[in-house]
Amino acid sequence: MDSSSLSSKSPESKGFFSSLFDFTNDKEINTTFASMKSQPNDAKTQQEACDQLHKLAEKSDKNKLYMVKNGGIALIVSAMRNHSNHPDVQASACAALCVLASHSSNTRETISEHNAIAHVLEAMKNHADHAVVQANACGVLSWLALDIGRSTIPLQGGIELIAQAMKSHLNSVSVQMRGCEALCVLCMESEQNRNSVVERGGVESVFKSVKQYPLDDNVSRIAVKCLQEIAKNAALSKQIEVETIELCVDVLKKHPKDVSVQSKYLSMMNDLLKQRKAS
């Protein structure tokens, strides 16, 4: 049920050999679609089908495109709508949407057109104590925030829900990583979203994330990038930069003999200082 990382959110060309394995499992996909259509009220069937679509979507881009063109998104969103009180269905559906959202901006537009953002946020509200739901939901939001979701997610209370998920699930690496990622993407090229992240407790959540996982490369890297995005707002830059540097110094003091930690956090501090000079 993994979502892709921030570093993979730019399209990359495939090599010849990898393209040889990019084929369509149309029979398996159609069988899965059929089961979802025949038993829409059976939660277990819907969950297992979403899990299957998730796995098949991860296999190839052609599978993703086939699902999108043949009504897969509508079926996944219907599963979320019909089983809103079933956390496992919500978690599996979000995982499938996350992989599909990674395909293209057109796919993300289709996902948004099916009102998926509202259902993902509703899942976060209904299952606030379920870490997997929160992590997978944040994963979907981080992809959708690349496009139309950057404006619609905040309008529907998404920033507050992401910040709350991070506070409530501090012991979940997945929630912290995907939450930081979602906030980071939302802040890109949006002064309004940066202000909203600060106002709704997002910065506090990001700082806690780094303090909780200072040695986790994924969490710390994405968290600091998120703070750098927020600091691009002139009114926030000095405060965020000072607090981030203080955080880096604190981590350096706690791990004086760890060469990788010393190198990583000194580099982060250097990047912040460069950003200040450039602004």
Task: Tell me about this structure.
- The protein has 17 helices and no strands.
- The chain is mainly alpha-helical.
Percent helix range: over 70%
What's the number of extended β-strand segments? Answer: 0
Q: What summary fits the major beta sheet?
A: none
Termini separation comes to 39 Å
Low-confidence stretches: none
- Secondary-structure element series: HHHHHHHHHHHHHHHHH
Shape: elongated
What topology does this entry show?
Blueprint: H1 16-20, H2 26-38, H3 43-59, H4 61-69, H5 72-82, H6 87-101, H7 105-113, H8 116-126, H9 131-144, H10 149-155, H11 158-168, H12 173-187, H13 191-199, H14 202-212, H15 217-230, H16 234-254, H17 259-278
Task: Summarize this entry quickly.
This protein is an all-alpha fold and 279 residues long. Helices cover 76% and strands 0% of the residues.
Defining traits:
single chain, 279 residues, mainly alpha, 76% helix
